[in-house]
Design goal:
25% helix; four-stranded antiparallel β-sheet; 8 strands; 3 helices
Length: 170
Amino acid sequence: MDGASRTVKFDVQDDVKAEVLNVLPDMRAGQLAVQTGLANANGRWCHVNFLNFESIAAPHVHVLGDAIQVAAGMPKSAHMADAHAKVSAAAIVAELQGLEIDPHPMLTNVCMSHVDDSQVIHVASVHEYVPTQKTFRTIGGSGSVSDVRSDLEAKYAEAWARNIWADTLM
């Protein structure tokens, strides 16, 4: 990238010049995961046992959210990371109490996106653990996408945010 000329240079396409560039770093698990050997999926992501989100590389270490090599169709979102945490926590508690881990956990996901100051759109999905495949699969027909942006969805997004913050911070 050449900041002085506001140009992004590519190896495989023509350079792009723009007034505003939103440049994102390479996506991968954090440096801690890389340095400790947890990032065992191409050195970028962490493979986990989806039944409890335990690292494949390190027993009793659980990895959640953006750091994992996700299942097919599984988005990387705050809601999904929260769902990972709930499945993992339930599995850890079951293990500590000598109980069986839930053999069929479910994950839900919703991504709420503001498109302007007062309107929001969403995408949602439900994922089930498939024991024979040892992974999560999106349940067919479970997803939804906003038909139009709306003020009502903005109210839903605000409620979602309050709930996720309460889950995370309380």
